[in-house]
Amino acid sequence: MSDTTLPPQQQDEQPGRQAEMRPEPEASMAKYRASARLAGKVALISGGDSGIGRAVAVGFAKEGARVGILYLNEHDDAAETLRLVAAEGGRGLVIAGDVGNSDFCREAARQMVAAFGRVDILVNNAAEQHLVETLEDLGDEQLERTFRTNVFSQFYLTRAVLPHMPDGGAIVNTTSVTAYQGNPVLLDYSATKGAIVAFTRALSKQLMQRGIRVNGVAPGPIWTPLIPASYPAEKTAQHGSNAPMGRPGQPDEVAPCYIFLASDDASYMSGQILHPNGGAVVNG
Predict the structure, then answer these.
(1) pLDDT at site 4
(2) Distance between CA 66 and CA 117 in Å, rounded?
(3) Structural domains for the chain
(4) Can you give the pLDDT at residue 15?
(5) Sequence-distant (≥ 6) Cβ neighbours of residue 44 within 8 angstroms
(6) 178 to each of 32, 124, 198, 210, how far by Cα in Å?
(7) Three-class SS of residue 123?
């Protein structure tokens, strides 16, 4: 049986652009049936322009939330996500900038409060990854940049949002199956995702008295712009082939985890991680 799951393709810049992918990821939540679980809520999603972030933004809008979308510079992707949110009757706001910069995170929180008055739900989802074959080849600049985008951003954005989050809010952090299984050519990325698991567990205890639940999602091999922006074309073509289900997942298959954790359906869950990963058992 062939281990090819997708057409070979590659992009030269991270975090990648969904409009250039073939086929495009399924991130419109077209088959999702909502039930007003987030009616009246205000959500902020980093990396919300494409991939998992787009599916979460659209899913939240379907459930009745107003949505803020943070992204780096993928303006066309962000505009399409905003269009999809509006098509579901949702109100959205797009804010471009680097979540690895604490000043930008404070400005994003300010804009959300100016537009919507508060933030009930925060999704820390932005990330980057770079293939490096050996630790000796991992430069200081890349190491710092990966941690700044993937880990520091979650500290910065959460710190900026918490003063504007009512008691009883929800935070959902994106980690990864690599936090549990490791990846020898994504050493710094794997380490950041492990840090996010620890951050999620510790923060859940700190915010318990405010009734703010903090949980995470650890996706496996999902078809997002980060994949062709990270891997050579021949590797991209094999994405997800090693998963027990033998294929990559789609953002639409991951977003319901975020909707659940953001909603009152998960009222008795905090400090937990959900694992949409194609059937891999990680015992974590």
Answers:
(1) 85
(2) 11
(3) 36-274 (3.40.50.720)
(4) 84
(5) 67, 68, 70, 108, 109, 112, 119, 121, 122, 123, 157, 161
(6) 28, 17, 14, 31
(7) strand
The model's pTM is 0.96
What is the side-by-side order of every strand in the sheet holding 121-124?
A: 92-96, 66-71, 42-46, 121-124, 170-174, 213-217, 273-274
Q: Are 151 and 199 spatial neighbours (Cβ–Cβ below 8 Å)? A: yes
Residue 136 to residue 116: CA distance in whole angstroms: 47
Count of Cβ atoms closer than 10 Å to residue 17 Cβ: 19
Distance, CA of 198 to CA of 219 (rounded, Å): 16
Q: Which of 189, 231, 258, 268 is catalytic?
A: 189
Q: Which residue has the tokens 């959205």?
A: 92
Clarify whether 189 is annotated catalytic: yes
DSSP H/E element including 93: strand 92-96
Q: What are the pLDDT digits (tens) for 157-213? A: 999 999 999 999 999 999 999 999 999 999 999 999 999 999 999 999 999 999 999
